[in-house]
Design a protein that fits this description.
The chain has about 375 residues and is α/β, with parallel strands linked by helices. It has two domains: about 170 residues, 3-Layer(aba) Sandwich (Rossmann fold), CATH 3.40.50; about 180 residues, Vaccinia Virus protein VP39 (Rossmann fold, 3-Layer(aba) Sandwich). Helix content is about 30%, strand content about 25%. It contains eleven helices and 18 strands. The strands form four sheets. The protein has a seven-stranded mixed sheet. α3 links the parallel β2 and β3. α1 packs parallel to α2 and α5 runs parallel beside α6. About 0% of the residues have low confidence.
């Protein structure tokens, strides 16, 4: 067995209080160990940095099919595989697609906190895995709810909850059945915006419009008319769509490291008839885009690293915006007012002015030095 303490989160945010594994990984691997000898391969979904996939391989799995929503997670798994000398040809990365689970008899899942994300995963497994598939899903007890059992129960005949260990618990589902929920992705029409948002289960805010994005949309007409625009951390692509509609001459790139976000943004942009004008890229903090290539960056940064409130993830995106912007270009960002990001923006990007402020959210514009 590999020593999980060897594993790192890199290239994701690293800090002493942020680990590359947790007690849920260990509990899932302990439960999976006796089953690994009976299956040709194992499917792992939601593995954050490779602890599950690499642990399964070291425990006897011949190969692992993996889906990780975050691109940084995929890169961390590959880096950790090299670190513990596991051949990469035993691991295959997949989108959340039928090929990921086709014929699978054992699926290990780090429970997502979103019930919609869990529903999409469970529906996929029930529809495309083997009839005798066993789905073993684990999470931290404080983040688990009875509703998770109900979601799994829509797609499987049997759902059993295990005993808690080290504040983690497992749900084991078997007996797959199909048609337990509406198909994914899902769409919602927003008449006030004149557009349809299309969302996969794991994307932030689903097919709705979160409050922060709405506050940034409210000042869209105050933004400069830029030739080259990046919607950084684009989610469902709302900002990219609305800016492209407002400034038809602009070239807009929507980018996110989330697989669910990229798929959702492409669908939302297609629904708006803008696929020829708005490019969507999966990239970690816009790292596939050239330095100094943008006149304007739009940003609604997350403020969590997993379940932990942490400023580091916003700082990574501020650094990315500074790299992408040409001198004189502008970063328009919205953030929780309580976080007070303005000093970081001044330091990282350049002079920053407040555009609007409410008790909950602040919008600022920063000019690249």
């Amino acid at each position: 067995m590999i020593d999980p303490d060897i594993l790192r989160r890199w290239p994701d945010v690293e800090a002493p209080e942020l680990l590359a594994h947790d007690a849920t990984d260990r509990l899932l691997l302990d439960e999976a160990a006796p089953r690994l000898l009976d299956v040709p391969d194992v499917v792992v979904i939601g593995d954050r940095y490779g602890a599950l996939a690499l642990g399964a391989l070291s425990a006897g799995a011949a190969s692992v099919r993996v889906h990780q929503d975050a691109l940084s997670g995929e890169r961390a798994l590959d880096a950790n595989a090299a670190r513990v000398d596991v051949p990469l040809d035993t691991v295959t990365h997949h989108e959340l697609e039928p090929a990921l689970v086709a014929g699978a008899r054992l699926v290990l899942l780090q429970l997502p906190r979103s019930l919609d994300a869990l529903d999409e995963i469970a529906a996929l497994v029930a529809a495309h895995a083997a009839p005798d598939v066993v789905l073993v899903a684990g999470g931290r007890v404080k983040h688990m709810t009875r509703a998770m059992n109900d979601v799994l129960g829509r797609h499987f005949d049997q759902v059993q909850a295990g005993l808690a260990r080290q504040k983690s618990r497992l749900l084991t589902a078997s007996g797959p059945r199909q048609g337990g929920s509406a198909p994914w992705p899902r769409s919602q029409r927003h008449d006030d915006l004149g557009l349809t948002v299309v969302a996969h289960g794991a994307v932030f805010a689903g097919s709705g419009v979160d409050i922060g994005t709405r506050q940034l949309l409210d000042v869209l007409d105050r933004m400069p008319e830029a030739a080259s625009v990046v919607d950084l951390g684009c989610g469902t692509g709302l900002l990219a769509v609305e800016y492209a509609r407002r400034v038809p001459s602009s070239r807009v790139v929507a980018t996110d490291q989330s697989s669910a976000a990229v798929a959702s943004a492409r669908a939302t942009i297609a629904a708006a008839g803008l696929s020829e004008r708005v490019e969507v890229r999966r990239a970690d903090a816009g790292d596939s885009l050239p330095e100094g290539s943008a006149d304007l960056v739009l940003l609604n940064p997350p403020f969590h690293v997993g379940a932990t409130v942490h400023a580091a993830v916003a700082q990574v995106l501020f650094d990315a915006a500074a790299r992408l912007l040409r001198p004189g270009g502008e970063l328009w960002t919205v953030y929780n007012s309580s976080l007070g990001h303005r000093p970081a923006l001044e330091r990282t990007v350049g002079p920053t002015r407040q555009v609007t402020r409410s008790p909950k959210f602040t919008v600022t514009a920063s000019t690249r030095r």
